[in-house]
Amino acid sequence: MSHPTDLLEQDSALSGANAAFLEQMYEQYLRDPDSVEESWRVHFAVLHESAHGQPEVAHSKIRKRLVQEAKEANAVRYRGDLKFTLSEENIRKQSGVARLIYHYRLRGHQAADNNPLKYLPKPAVPDLELAYFGLSEADLDTVFDTGTLYGPDRLPLREILALLKETYCGSIGSEYLHIADTGIKFWIKDRLEMARGRVVLDLTKKRWLLRMLTAAEGIEQYLHQKYVGQKRFSLEGCESLIPLMDELIQRAGEQGTREMVIGMAHRGRLNMLVNILGKQPAQLFREFEGTAEKASQATSGDVKYHMGFSSDVASRGGIVHLALAFNPSHLEFINPVVQGSVRARQDRLGENRLKEVLPVLIHGDAAMAGQGIVMETLNMAETSGYHTGGTLHIVINNQIGFTTSRVNDARSTPYCTDVAQMVQAPVFHVNADDPEAVLFVTQLALDYRMTFHKDVVIDLIGYRRQGHSEADEPAATQPLMYRFIRNHPSVRRLYAERLEREEVIVPGEAAEMEQAYRQALETADVVSRPIVPNPEHYKRSWRPYFGYGWDAPADTTVAPETLRALGERLLDLPEGFVAHPRVVAIRDARRRMMLGEEPLDWGYAETLAYASLLAQGLSVRLSGEDSERGTFFHRHAVVYDNETGQSYTPLRTVTQGEARFEVFNSLLSEAGVLGFEYGYSTAEPESLVIWEAQFGDFANGAQVYIDQFISSGQAKWGLLCHLTVLLPHGYEGQGPEHSSARLERYLQLCAEHNIQVCVPTTPAQIFHLLRRQVLRPCRLPLVVMSPKSLLRHKQAVSSLAELAEGAFQPVLDEIDPLDPQAVTRVVLCAGKVYYDVLDARRALKSNHIAIVRVEQLYPFPQTQFKDILARYPNMKQLVWCQEEPENQGAWHQIKHRFLDSVGGGVELRYAGRPMSAAPAVGSHRLHMEQQRQLVADALD
Q1: What does the record list as GO biological process (predicted)?
Q2: To the nearest 10°, the Cα dihedral for 514, 517, 518, 521?
Q3: I want to staple 308 with a disulfide (CB 3.0 to 4.6 A). Which of 4, 326, 359, 784 is the partner?
């Protein structure tokens, strides 16, 4: 094959005589671009992209383009005019222009004028200079093919450069070329280049924008003057967030959004509450003055910048319900909570659910880059169990985290938003001092989310006018930054001056707006958009569940014939379905259980609990790292065809009405998934919502949710939650990390009947416990120390009658026919150790020892416990036996309950492992020795 430049020198390669050759070469290029010579590869790339990025280009269009270029080249050659001759130099420069366009799209954000802090010189971006592409100022008036650049096919280089700089180097820096989907990339490209990064606003909209900025600045200045030195975590420096949120709500409502769930930390929260959600300023002022009342269900209350709020506002498309989630001081940990709440709301809706409920997460720059929960939440975005149709992320970028501002200290990446690239989210870095550019990216980001149902990020680059809190002095650690900030006018002032220059407002009008807002703060109920009544909005209400305690009655019985019918339904498989032989054996055993030939094991009793709830029209959601099958091969809620790999979920065949059964194998995350399920349970009071840890101690990685949300949410915020947490717990000689769910930590958190901590030991107990959790009107979190080896223990079984009748028993008395009068010692225990003590007692025939199981450790069932102990009038010793070391487990958290229940003549003592820094030993032999010793201590 001849070299292309040889063809150009001898005769134009684009002549009609070479059409077949060119077609063949182009086909070869489409199959493998590297198989053709570089100069042709560059030329074909320009042709291929000329159809605005469509993945396939009709060959007729390419042939037409080639013929046209051939005619132009021949005409120029015959005319003797060399300006447009298709020479090797021109091809090289055209290639340079194509690369220039690409680099502006790729690197333009590095040169963008989007940082209001200009006290530091902007780093040079050499790969955007003309010389980098073999071009110079002499080429500015040369006309080049624009390729995929939005607009005319050919433009002078000067105009190409102007369009690129306006689009990619103005107030907006865009990152989107990391996205793999070509169609998505070209959608963003066209939206950016068509508008050149500008939004067209009429005079009314510009005045509205100034009013919103006036409100954002006004509330901060008012609070600063009235409540000097009090913490409020001011928004000053990023006031453009307020018009951003207002535009977002209005545009989202126009596109069908009916609910928006918002998560954000402290910065700007009070401003959002007053100016967006419509909280009465007077109520906020009472919180500053310490005279505000707590929520009706709260006992401790919380600081004002942690509080949530909800309201209904009118949008251009209808009423939008806004819900700002309660948030502790743990910043980004609200992220998966919001996602779970959104998913619960979406699950109640129809085909438009992804548009009707929109998650919005407002991050801090240092927190987004620094906290791993952000990555865990992003990693959920496209998974089936946790997908919410895309989240709109907004970063309040102060360019400082407390006192850390330098990039080398705050993060290891150029931007705080780089973590979002893991889900190929486009990122728009926008100057917070240019509110019109902020409005443009708001519209673009929302339209992107609604079109593609994927995450998108707005990086609102501003600054922090005050310190981390208003009592802080930031100039002590950032003297240069704050010298600039103190002399830098606010965005409201900058925009007001701009509108005066544009003659949109008259001199003095901005000051009148400021004074009117200040007067409204002191006289009006609401200073935001009007709040509208929306009594029909809520599809789930928590009102029926307030005021009930854990001992509220619940009928958890199920008729035996119903259980049998459900059991048979669960055992049916589709015709031709081939299950794994081990699964077949389990299902055969369950069939015998249904026939009464064998007692029921744990896995089947749990499955029947779900089935019975579904048959009553109540939904069940279960998620965890191996929840479909069960970590310990006991559940098999989803069965797989051994030949085809197709899955089948028997529990979905028993649902009634709108009830759903959902079980998900989660991503390898504890914190993110537990936070998600917590959020789900706070928005869905009428379903059984369960998070299951793979091993109980894995919940250590999610401790923030246990401490700051699950155990204390009601005390702080009056927020009910009924999440069930299954934590496999038990000492089987598997070492320190697979033994203990850290029972002591949960008991330490127990107070004011805030959570339930249970250690069931029989299939009937877990059956009634799970049913009780959703059938009674009480809504409290439930922490279950669930078993591992007990799942197949020959004694840990129940009859079908025990499931059909009775209820969950917080305390279980001795099961052997002992003479109560002869009992002098009562051994108390919880969990698996009971069976070891029982076997040893029977072997020793120590009939003077009774064994009592405490199945609910909190709230402690004092009445039932006293009633059982009263059966043993000659008791002299009360022994608490546990597997855990003495400084762990329940002993130190529960022994005062025993002292309150017995007289002074009874000795109370401990039997268990000695104190230990680790939960368990690593040697199986040593484990067995310790187990034998603690059982002997309990009985001796």
Answers
A1: tricarboxylic acid cycle
A2: -160
A3: 326
